[in-house]
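User: Can you predict the 3D structure for this chain?
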Amino acid sequence: MSNHALSEVLSHEHSESHATDVNYMPPLFEAIPLGIQHVLAMFVGNVTPPLIIAYAIDAPAATTVFLVQAAMFVAGIATLVQTLGLGPVGAKVPIVMGTSFGFLPILVPIAQNNGLPAVLGACFCGGIAMAIVGYFIRHVRFLFPPVVTGTFVLLIGLILLPTGFAYVGGGFGAEDFGATRHLLLAFVVFCVTLGINQFAKGFLSEMGVLIGIIVGYLIAIPMGLIDFSSVGEADWAALPHPFKIGLEFVPTAIFGVVVMSIVTSAESIGDIAGTVIGGANREPTSKELSGGVMADGLASSFAAIFNAFPQISFSQNVGLVALTGVASRYVVAIGGGFLVFAGLFPKVGAFVTTIPAAVLGGAVVIMFGMIAAAGVRMLSLVTLNKRNMLIIGVSVAFAIGLRGQPSLYEHYSVEIKAMLESGLIPGTVVSMALNLLLPGREVVDHGDQAVGQTT
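Assistant: Here is the predicted structure, written as structure tokens:
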């Protein structure tokens, strides 16, 4: 091998080692657009839950705008804590935080029957419960072996895919859902994103999602799919206002949200595992899992104080880390800073919300698919014997089957229906239960080793 060729190989290996190092800080001219790319991938998903809740209770326009602003600000603070850490709180890996969709089936009925203060009071309690799970994660790690977390990550990807294709069709509730213009726009973004990721080299290949969204946005302007009216109506600056809506503690509301929060800890564990495996090519440590779940919980309680809803790691960004191969937590922290900025200056947030759903759809279907692929990768490290195959198969059956047939449990309480319809909760509970009950479970003293190491 020539000296030049050897130099190129060593340079490539050095670059790859940097890309998979969570503590590597790329040059700012690379880090800033990569961080903004993460924000664009989750922005609409972050502000959609408060919009849905506001529409469900027919909230005034001013309240709706306030809820959206709060969602951006809180997501930014939560992302900074998750990536940079605050003492033992925070996984210190590239996790993007945002408002959870999973709680909507429970929060909407609470909002309609008891009001927003009851929603926020229940969310505050649910966050504390999740933080407690995170603090004691070392003692409950046996509940989350690779076969369970791998199955959960696989389910996240599979269950999110219909949402991705809803974006492709123009977004939930679009009057012209499935129109040719939406499908073509999503297809262009899909092709540009995939093409750049696979055929470009170096830094450019990591920017596939951002470039795809920009190209789609520019095409959407002459198509008449961009409405800038919200930008003109938004304020230039607005400070966060804690306790503006208030907290009210209703026992029945608290019960449903606390149960959902505890089970959702598995989603956080799965996202952290998927991010570290997909980006850093290793399993997460106990410290990373504990800090990450505590950050999710405390961020959710913080969110309730600042008039926002439960926070969770965003799965599409897990897929983005796997797609780009850039695992730097500082890149994601830059994205968190941009979210805080958007929350303080509503015009910035209003501009980003003008991105058509179809443009996002063309990119997120790839990222959601990458999440499922990350789950497959995690499961490939598991011994696929009869026991583990049964755990995976039955868990997927319950998750997809119950989600696809809601009439089976339509007469149950709102809380039970919400948990069953999520798909993720029954799938995770079944996988955890089977892992504990079926013979042949490996008992391992992990200590401070990476999760997933077995004897």
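The chain has 20 helices and two strands. Strands lie at 97-99, 311-313.
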